[in-house]
Amino acid sequence: MSDLQQIVHALGRRARAAARVLALASSEQKNRALAAIADELLAATDPILAANAADLTAAREGGLSPAMLDRLTLDRVRLTAIAQGVRAVAELPDPVGRNLRDWTHANGLRFAKISVPIGVIGFIYESRPNVTADAAALCLKSGNAVILRGGSEALASNHALAAAVARGLERAGLPGDAAQLVPTADREAVRQLCALDEFVDLLIPRGGRGLIETVVQHARMPVIKHYDGICALYVDAAADLAMAERIALNAKCQRPGVCNAIETLLVHRDVAAEFLPRVARVLRDRGVQLRADPGALTVLGGEQAPGIAAAADADFRTEFLDLILAVKIVDSLDAAVAHIAANGSHHSDTIVTEDATAAEIFLRAVDSAVVYWNASTRFTDGAEFGFGAEIGISTDRLHARGPMALEELTTYKYVARGTGQVR
Amino acid sequence: MSDLQQIVHALGRRARAAARVLALASSEQKNRALAAIADELLAATDPILAANAADLTAAREGGLSPAMLDRLTLDRVRLTAIAQGVRAVAELPDPVGRNLRDWTHANGLRFAKISVPIGVIGFIYESRPNVTADAAALCLKSGNAVILRGGSEALASNHALAAAVARGLERAGLPGDAAQLVPTADREAVRQLCALDEFVDLLIPRGGRGLIETVVQHARMPVIKHYDGICALYVDAAADLAMAERIALNAKCQRPGVCNAIETLLVHRDVAAEFLPRVARVLRDRGVQLRADPGALTVLGGEQAPGIAAAADADFRTEFLDLILAVKIVDSLDAAVAHIAANGSHHSDTIVTEDATAAEIFLRAVDSAVVYWNASTRFTDGAEFGFGAEIGISTDRLHARGPMALEELTTYKYVARGTGQVR
Lengths: 423, 423
Prior knowledge:
Two copies of one chain form a homodimer. By secondary structure, chain A is of the alpha/beta class. The first copy, chain A, folds into two domains: 3-227 and 398-417, Aldehyde Dehydrogenase, Chain A, domain 1, CATH 3.40.605; 231-383, 3-Layer(aba) Sandwich (Aldehyde Dehydrogenase, Chain A, domain 2), CATH 3.40.309.10. Chain A is 43% helix and 20% strand. Chain A has helices at 3-23, 27-43, 45-61, 66-72, 76-91, 130-141, 155-171, 188-194, 209-218, 241-253, 269-285, 294-299, 333-343, 356-365, and strands at residues 99-104, 110-117, 120-124, 145-149, 179-181, 202-205, 231-235, 262-268, 289-292, 308-310, 324-330, 348-352, 370-375, 392-394, 402-404, 410-421. The first copy, chain A, has a seven-stranded parallel beta sheet with strand order 10-9-11-8-7-12-13, sandwiched between helices. In chain A, strands 5-4-3-6 form a four-stranded parallel beta sheet, sandwiched between helices. The longest helix of chain A has 21 residues, at 3-23. Chain A is globular, with a radius of gyration of 24 Å. The first copy, chain A, starts with a helix and ends with a strand. The mean pLDDT of chain A is 96. β16 (410-421) of chain A pairs parallel with β13 of chain B.
């Protein structure tokens, strides 16, 4: 084994041992650990901010964009919020040990389906160091050990944060190895993690195409991707156009850089002449560029109109994460559904209509994690769903779809209690 | 693309199109298709048996074992049973469209979590042709399209069966492409399926180590393995030894060739001298060979005793699927749990004890799909669980654990109905 392989293998071995302890920890002990972690994070404010300052200096020298620098930055206010987030997780119900179902066999054997931790989770994410503490807290609460692989530009910050987390775990009598950081920025470490199916039960990658592709290609264990949101708003022939305008504005502009913002606006032909100029006006006022298909371009006054450009096909398959919206006129509800099936990312899509039949067809036929009728796609979020916290939003279909929180960090086992039953 | 790639790619493309239709089919239409498939299977008795005879001739020339030849053989009785099995699936409740949970946001947005089909399932299995019809029926009922990859020795039989299935689908107005057979015995086709994440949402391999390893290494999509059962019976210090004997006999001998039979017997030191000779006698009468660790070997009279051999370490990590049982004396409940964690396959394990505290520790600490107290491991089975049918028994941890049936062939989506809600 190479040195790196040895390092990653040792992380895995220790995580597996820690997971066995964590799986049997009581709710009370896990909550005590969360409180201790919050305390340790605040107590380590100075070293954490010093480590973050070193990361920021290197990142500035490396030419990181201002937006990325902002995401990387920690200060006293942000660190306090991180510690409060950890304390808030303690308040949530324990997702482990829930009785999901029970029944009795005709022979008297009593079955119960019980939620249990997944085991060891490999969590691969980018830039923002607050995710390090959030993910550690959620994995701890759900009884899982976690191996954290953050962005290379946040390595020193993450080190300092993870050290505080480990101290908190140990203060509560739990193994510090329950939340370990991959101690190197070497990209090869991700591939090593992907091969570690002996020790890692689930990989959660959250990031860009390069990261996701590496994980999909190499992982030997289950993967739940947290990837693109190419979300669409479809304005039906029977839409309340004032409502459609409000929803378009909210879903595009309230926070354009997140995965549940819309990237595509589909408008039924019958209302396009009325709706498109109207929505274009309010969107333009908010600085949104519209990239219009030929039909929409005509209605909107052509490319010379301010804030209007011609759409390329690729624009309908792009997560802009910016004040850009691809616009298309469709002939029917079916055409809208077909467009979403062919171009969307199965994340979140919404129909605005007063026609309940059309709405129910859309809700049934659109195969996305969350499908809305007369509401903004921005509600696809763990907190909005009432989950209390989230580790991300799954764009995969199995085990977890959409907002992924504590329950989605558990699996189940069956327990059967008998009196000597045989077949 | 190679010819094979083109063939597999086309299977995927057609399966995806069929899955879209199937996902929206009504329960009534799916049940009509199941009835039509059963009819078509019986109507095609002659060509199916002729194809099977050709497979059997080739298999005999290829030197297939008598046991494998028996598994490959179809006759009128078996074909009637297959058709009845398909009809029985129609009687089961539709697993699609169940309301798994619903709640309302403070702003009035109404959420529902609804079961939906997974999409396209790649099912890779070995030898027994009855699995072809079973899997097609279960996937159809759960609204999924399936690509079937059976054993090469059953290719002609599977062709004839799949043709009857496709005719049944079409008679009910559903796409025949909803259940397609990979039309070649080329092993490379499995690797091509593994790369087809554009069209295949889940791979279910059911077979030996070579197949599983190929799939784990190459699959780009989720995989649910149906693999080894290295199941253990632990006889506690406080066991009812007569019950332990009955359960050992049942779990080892009732059907030794299946994954939920026990392969390991762990006996607490305090009862070993009394229990081991006694259970050895009844097991020997049933033709079982015991492979004993040094401690058990001494109690059992050494290697010269009839039916007794010394165990190698590997015997405790082997799925014998035969009348062989690895036997070990352990010092404590904890040692039994540790042995199972280190050597078992997380399938099914059981404790026999009258001590409820010991039982609950075992049920909690043993991390297997099904954990039993005072019952045979042989109950790990879709029919025994009341699931009505099963596509296999998952040895994985995510999405489906243990018996996998109709519900486990679905995933979910969220549907949210609003009145113009924005954030």
